[in-house]
Write a structure and sequence with these properties.
The structure holds two protein chains of two kinds.
Chain A: H1 4-20, E1 39-44, H2 61-70, E2 75-78, E3 81-84, E4 87-94, E5 97-102, H3 116-128, E6 140-147, E7 150-155, H4 162-166, E8 192-198, E9 202-207, E10 220-225, H5 229-237, E11 243-245, H6 249-256, E12 261-276, H7 286-294, H8 298-305, E13 310-312, H9 334-343, E14 350-357, H10 364-377, E15 380-387, H11 389-397, E16 403-409, H12 415-423, H13 435-446, H14 450-466, E17 470-483, E18 486-487, E19 503-504
Parallel strand pairs in A: 1-10, 1-11, 14-15, 14-16
Antiparallel strand pairs in A: 2-3, 4-5, 5-7, 6-7, 8-9, 9-10, 11-17, 12-16, 12-17, 13-17, 18-19
Helix pairs in contact in A: 7-9, 12-13, 12-14, 13-14
Chain B: H1 2-29, H2 34-39, H3 45-54, H4 61-73, H5 87-122, H6 127-141, H7 144-158, H8 174-200, H9 203-210, H10 215-252, H11 258-267, H12 271-299, H13 301-306
Subcellular location (chain B): Cell membrane
Protein name (chain B): ABC transporter permease
Family (chain B): Belongs to the binding-protein-dependent transport system permease family.
């Protein structure tokens, strides 16, 4: 016989289960397009904390991923070449002046036509915003708008990177740019506009009905941040999202076998590098730095750790970047490493440290372990220091480190962005100072002839590589994983997945 | 009773002041400059300095501290460096998500804990009792993040029954709430079981039975009332660890709550948000402790006499 207490318990249990067993599967994809179009649901690997492309986050991957669907630039980089976008043509009346003629058929999502005043206000906002891209425009001393369709940019000294820099100058309406509330739900001239934004969590885009081109096939795009890799993978496999990107290589192997998903890998502007602090002994000696490189069997490590996640580096910049050039590879040669160490006065090796910020790098901890074990074989004892990002950054900028491992991206796709930003002796980023390198980099920046500019970066790259300012083991591949039915996606080397041209079956 | 409440309140204010002081200095003792963390390595030095000035980080520490306390009294914790919104706003918007999660978990733990504990106690060493004992040992010792991931695997990945993350539908609440509830559930369950077993042999229970009262009334009224005190104490205290567990659960399930806000803010050295979060959580802790203390008075005539 059942006792009354059993019945109480059973009732309570049933109550709780009933309470929690609400229905699931509310359809959040119903489109606003009225043509049966649906919203693409994507999960970004890092949170979007701001949609303001002129301030602190102007070079952040998550911010740019969304911003590129909303705003447009004067020019774009397509297949490695600069092509017109909002500007239809440009000239150099003299080497210090750049004149752009804007298209006449462009309106913002609120219906107001695009004018040169908007372009001027946007450039001014980027310079005044003092974010990471402001430095690209340091030599600009005058911006003018002779008429509604003409923009002139005047520089104090010649600036050969104007076109590359413009690929990250997003044009926003001049009347709104000073209003910080505008960036809570911004609109521009691009195919989508922002309908809602919760910083750090989610962004929703809907079609910009005023877009001059063909309307997107999607009704909108909804981005949400899922911090855990396993969470994103499950959400994708479970049809809660249609796309995600930036997954670690060990996850991709499993996903390639899933018939519901398509995995796309592609070369990017990002690479891995290990810097030595050239202002600190023993790394003041180039032979020590070169010895570190020769001591590690990168071919073997790449194969075991980065199967399809990257390609062996051919220079200090990934091959897809303007101005990158192939350099002489460093062979895995422990005997040569020992010779170099002996010549530098360290026949028995030495002890040092290598820091990195946790989560900085694909397979970072395993990679560090592998390098450290190879270095130990030639007598170099490297103590690993995995730090929190803010702490790492603090030490990095104070040059308070021996060596550091990190990954970086050349967001403009132009060698100047990385080489001049990091390797000029005035940058003080890695303790390396070389007047010859400075001369080449500054000459390259001032060169308006793009072919000559590329040749100068090849020279600069050779110095950075041969002098082993750092070790450059790997160019990183990006990856985007889509559910079957997402069609028309084309990856780009800037690794900012662009879903504007995508359709959903 | 009033004096008792007032004294408890005064102590609470002191505790709150202590928490505020500790979080203020602890955040600043950790290396890493917030302005640099926000602007990144490529920011212009002048921009970093400007941001430090804008947020008052260039002032001497004691002055910053006094400023912070003065503004905190009016619930103004300053603006988030990272999310460009008032820290108080951010905490309040995220708090509702955490509160929903924590309260649901609390309810699940209490209801199931009482139900299973009672069932187990009425048939000590029966099959159900043994199963429940083993399960409660397991749920208390398994790490929360692991349980969360396993639930996702089973109910999302394989069975496609529940959404794996986010807070878009009511169903999305089930797995995070259950994950969060499990450790507390096993504590409540064992307390209820052992408490009931103790009192069921007391004379007054025998008397109650002898009076011919139904078993439901004996267990559910006479016995239950006397084992409530330890359960209330522990449940109240455990509500605090529930909030701690929420940090992990919110990350595993991408639940947009205070826990996630706080972990992201700590990583970004977003002082104002960390301070607002910690003080909010401290207030919740203190209020719960107060409620527990006052409930005691209500539940236990001996305490009522003494105050």
């Amino acid at each position: 016989m059942r006792s009354p207490t059993t019945r109480i318990g059973a009732l309570a249990l049933a109550g709780v289960l009933g309470l929690t067993a609400c229905s699931f599967g509310t359809d959040d994809r119903a489109g606003s397009g009225g043509d049966g179009a649906t919203t693409l649901r994507v999960a970004n690997p890092t949170p979007v904390v701001s949609l303001n492309p002129f301030a602190a986050n102007s070079a952040d991957q998550p911010t740019l991923t969304v911003v590129q669907e909303v705003f447009e630039t004067l020019v774009v980089r397509a297949d490695g070449k600069i092509a017109p976008k909002l500007a239809e043509s440009w000239t150099n009346p003299d080497p210090l002046t750049w004149q752009f003629v804007l298209r006449s058929d462009v309106t913002f999502a609120d219906g107001t036509p695009l004018t040169s005043a908007d372009a001027k206000a946007s450039l001014q906002a980027l310079i005044d915003g003092k974010g990471p891209l402001a430095g690209l425009w340091a030599t600009v001393d005058d911006i003018r708008t002779p008429d509604e369709r003409t923009l002139t940019i005047h520089t104090k000294s010649q600036l050969g990177t104007v076109l590359s820099n413009l690929t990250l100058l997003w044009i926003a309406p001049a009347a709104k740019i000073a209003d910080s509330a505008f960036f809570d739900a911004p609109y521009g001239t691009g195919p989508f506009k922002v309908s809602s934004f919760t910083a750090g969590q989610a962004v929703s885009l809907v079609r910009n009905e005023k877009y001059r081109g063909e309307q997107p096939k999607l009704a909108g795009i909804s981005y949400r941040y899922i911090p855990e890799v396993s969470g994103r993978v499950t959400a994708l496999a479970n049809n809660e999202i249609d796309a995600t990107w930036g997954l670690p290589p060990d996850q991709l192997t499993g996903l390639r076998g899933n018939g519901d998903l398509t995995v796309t890998s592609f070369p990017t502007y990002a690479n891995y590098y290990i810097w030595f602090n050239s202002s600190r002994k023993p790394f003041t000696d180039a032979r020590v730095r070169q010895a570190m490189w020769h001591a590690v069997d990168f071919a073997k490590i790449n194969k075991s750790l980065f199967d399809q996640a990257g390609a062996p580096a051919t220079g200090p910049l990934p091959a897809a970047i303007f101005g990158s050039a192939g350099q002489n590879p460093y062979a895995y040669d422990p005997a040569k490493a020992r010779q170099l160490l002996t010549a530098a006065g360290y026949p028995d090796g030495f002890s040092t440290t290598m820091m990195w910020s946790s989560g900085c790098c694909t397979n970072g901890n395993s990679f560090a372990d592998a390098m450290i074990s190879d270095w130990a074989k030639v007598g170099i004892v490297v103590k690993p220091q995995e730090l929190e990002r803010a702490t790492w950054l603090d030490k990095l900028l104070k040059l308070d480190w021996d060596s550091t491992m990190t990954t970086g991206s050349t967001v403009t796709g132009d060698a100047d962005f990385t080489l001049a930003r990091l390797y000029l002796s005035t940058a003080k980023r890695n303790g390396y100072a070389n007047p010859e390198l400075d001369r080449i980099l500054l000459a390259a920046r001032a060169e308006l002839d793009q072919d000559k500019r590329a040749a100068l970066y090849a020279q600069a790259g050779k110095i950075v590589w041969d002098d082993a300012v750092g070790i450059f083991p790997l160019d990183l591949n990006g990856n985007v994983v889509l559910r079957k039915g997402v069609e028309g996606f084309t990856p780009t080397p800037n690794d900012l997945p662009d879903f504007a041209g995508v359709s959903l079956r | 009773m009033l004096r008792y409440a007032l004294r408890r309140l005064a102590i609470s204010v002191l505790v709150l002041f202590g928490a505020a002081t500790v979080v203020f200095f602890a955040m600043r003792a950790v290396s890493g400059d917030p302005a640099t963390a926000v602007l990144g390595p490529d920011a212009d030095q002048a921009a970093v300095e400007a941001l430090r000035r804008e947020y008052g980080l260039d002032a001497p520490l004691p002055i910053q501290y006094v400023q912070f306390l003065r503004r905190a009294v009016t619930l103004d914790f300053g603006e988030s460096f990272r999310l460009h919104d008032a820290a108080t706003n951010l905490v309040l918007t995220h708090l509702s998500a955490t509160a929903a999660l924590a309260l649901t978990a609390f309810a699940i733990a209490l209801v199931l804990g009482f139900a299973l504990g009672t069932l187990a106690a009425t048939r000590p060493n029966g099959v159900l009792d043994r199963v429940v004992s083993v399960l409660s040992m397991l749920t208390q010792s398994l790490p929360t993040f692991w349980v969360g991931i396993m639930l996702i695997l089973v109910f999302s990945r394989f069975l496609h029954l529940l959404p794996s993350s986010g807070a878009a539908s009511p169903a999305a609440m089930i797995m995070p709430a259950v994950t969060l509830a499990l450790p507390l559930l096993s504590v409540v369950l064992r307390l209820v079981r052992s408490g009931l077993l103790d009192v069921l042999h007391e004379d007054y229970v025998v008397t109650a039975r002898a009076k011919g009262l139904s078993e439901t009334r004996v267990v559910g009224w006479h016995a239950m009332r006397n084992m409530l005190i330890p359960v209330v104490t522990v449940a109240g205290l455990e509500f605090g660890s529930l909030l701690g567990g929420a940090v992990i659960v919110e990350t595993v399930f991408a639940w947009p709550g205070v826990g996630r806000l706080m972990t992201d803010a700590i990583a970004a050295r977003d002082y104002s948000v960390v301070q607002a979060c910690v003080i909010t959580v401290a207030v919740i802790f203190i209020v719960i402790n107060l409620i527990v203390d006052l409930l005691y008075v209500r539940l236990d005539p001996r305490v009522r006499e003494s105050v």
